[in-house]
Amino acid sequence: MSDRIHSLSGYIYEYQKSVQAPEQFWARIADGFHWQKPYEKVLSWNFEKPDVKWFEGGQLNITENILDRHLYTRGDQAAIIWEPNDPNEQNLILTYRELHAEVCRFANAMKAQGIEKGDRVIIYMPMVPEAAVAMLACARVGAVHSVVFAGFSASALSDRIIDCQAKMVLTADGNFRGKKSIPVKALVDEALEKCDSITSVITLKRTGEEVNMQAGRDYWWHEVIEGVSSEHKAEVMDAEDMLFILYTSGSTGKPKGVVHTCGGYMVYTYYSFKNVFQYNQGDVYWCTADIGWITGHSYIVYGPLLAGATSIMFEGVPTFPDPGRFWAICEKYKVNQFYTAPTAIRALQAYGTDPIAPYNLSSLKVLGTVGEPINEEAWHWYHDHVGKGKCPIVDTWWQTETGGIMISPLAGVTPTKPAYATMPLPGIQLAVLDNEGQELKGNSVEGNLCIKFPWPSMLRTTYGDHERCKQTYFSSFPGYYFTGDGVKRDEDGYYRILGRVDDVINVSGHRMGTAEVENAINEHPKVIESAVVGYPHEIKGQGIFAYVICDLEGRSEESLTQEIKDTVTKIIGPIAKPDRLLIVSGLPKTRSGKIMRRILRKIASGEGDHLGDISTLLNPEVVTSIQEAVHASKA
Ligand code: WT7
């Protein structure tokens, strides 16, 4: 398919076409795919309801475009290269032909377990190739997968199972992470105590640890695929049938199930992958994300495999067995495009350049970042020491809800600027709005980042609660999709993301609702009230700062602090554990009883001396006592 942009003028031309005639633009990309039945209408949309449909009437199976379509052209090419946690363990390469066989086999096994089109299947697995096989097998049979990051707790897992009323869980006995091994199946067992929709659990043997197997419910992966055929006729899906649900945090307490559909997601992840990374046949591409996040869905599995790429999947962590691991892997597989998160770059930057020095990184052509704003220092370090000054950096801005990259340079095409995501991809019509909802035209403006026209991979709804989708994304600024981010468009028309403008914080590139963390904290019986805010953190981008009012009777602050942190780990997972937790006597409130987060944010950020006017508070005196507590806790 000749749908790659090669020059800046080509970008400008394609962008203009995509705005003037969006339907023709996307039809041209869509027509490169195999449709079992052609679509009748490219797009119908309404941002009030919201109701967006792409490629209506079209029928397809995304896995035919990932697997069957590539069998004859690149059957023997590596589709997935899997690098294990332990560099001394044997790696694994799955060609397109082998991946096709594995997906079909597992699809048949799932069918045999009673899974049908439309059923929801939870994937709670480590970064092993079977996780990608599981996702594609779901897509093959028309089941809706919902991948839950294996670092989430049993309680977070059960919330998601209950919300989507899943029928099956795909998991593993354990998960190797650096020197540790995490018992995954045991967490599934715990989660399932609270769920009654699950009829079967299929467990992959990975770490070999002891697990409980409940008769009639639990099966081993290797047993269910034994003797099963590796041929499977893909289920016919409507373009707007659900492909997957992925839960993400928002400003309210409960994570939302973001819904993506088959046709549009396929077209956009393919197109954006090819253009942003400028992938050429034969290149080796590596995205370090986890499949538990949207980045893993769109840019480890779907986008690259739709494009017939070779995609690396890495099980481990950047610092095991030492902080040179990323570069060892880049050298080992001669990686051409490398995509990671600013938090990983900053963490590695802290070790200096010695861990990079032994490795030959000359294969690298493109470096990418995603998940959070990248500070200029990290950008330069990445550019100079990893890319040796010759690799363009694509700072890709997007969201779980957008399904694919929205704002990013196209590697080698768009001139970059450190800390800028630069320009929207073709088809993406951005708008910067002031707080009154006025669109700010022209350059040198700052405001709320919105999108005013549909794109193929946008979310369609939030599972089981369409009203919530409308309220969250389409109501703040009627007629627009609101991202929740603040943005600056500079004098050159370049976009720089300024961070969230809602009560969402970004910790190591992971989105965390402050209300969600507060709810978890409040589960501790001694907690009376809490408030959580983000503060600048050198490695994580933002850290989690919790102010907690407790009933201290008979208890030491120290033991309570630890217990409350443990409660959060238990309820959400280690990624939500507060970096700082301060027991306070009160929280600053307005006269109407609203917590003044602005003040708490300033204090957490070390700007407690510049709070401005606090005389309108209901309880200005608590501010002084909080400040004293902060100083005392630092001392
Ligand atoms: C939020 C979305 C999209 C994949 C990973 C995160 C922030 C994402 C960037 C970037 C600045 C970024 C935004 C966004 N974000 N990429 N390149 N520069 N901020 O997905 O968990 O859905 O979070 O991540 O605040 O709204 P997510």
Structure characterization notes:
It is a single chain. α1 packs across α2, α3 packs antiparallel against α4 and α4 crosses α5. The chain starts with 7 loop residues before the first helix and ends with a helix. The longest helix is centred in the N-terminal third of the chain and has 17 residues. The strands form nine sheets. Strands 5-4-17-16-18-19-20 form a seven-stranded mixed β-sheet, with helices on both faces. It is an alpha/beta fold. Among the domains are: about 140 residues, Rossmann fold, CATH 3.40.50; about 130 residues, GMP Synthetase, Chain A, domain 3 (2-Layer Sandwich). It is globular and about 75 Å long. The protein is built from 18 helices and 30 strands. The mean pLDDT is about 95. It binds 5'-O-[(S)-butoxy(hydroxy)phosphoryl]adenosine. The site of 5'-O-[(S)-butoxy(hydroxy)phosphoryl]adenosine (WT7) has 22 residues, from α10, β20, β24 and β25.
